[in-house]
Here is the input.
Amino acid sequence: MAIAYIALGANLGDPASTLRAAFAALDSVPDSRLLARSALYLSAPVGLTGQPDFVNAAARIETSLAPAALLDALFAIEQQFGRLRGERNGPRTLDLDLLLYDLQVITTPRLTLPHPRLHLRAFVLLPLADLDHALSIPGRGTLAAWLPAVATQGIRRLDA
Here is the structure.
């Protein structure tokens, strides 16, 4: 069994309710089990402004699925929640990003692990820190070492 970390985000509809439902959906992925979930965080959009703020979170799962099969399962969950892939960094009903899969480093046209920008984004690092503050990011060092670099990014923890 492998340990995988997944980022969750949404800014359309009722994002907080969507993320709570998405945690349940992650727990129903075949050959997988939700081990932990972070708090919910509110963050400003990155890249494409002029859209609603995002609600973000992270999940740790145990899975026997291969990374590509897990990615397929995440895309299927996004579709269940009405995700339409359009404008990069645009509004979305649900976004699920596979961040880490054990300590594997993978670079294919479809999947890059660790996620190439996870260490640059507070909306990813803070929820991950809820799950494991000492988490190691292959090729990048520890999660804790990257937290000061994102300290000025606008994000706040929600009571949820």
User: Anything to note?
Assistant: The first helix runs from residue 15 to 27.
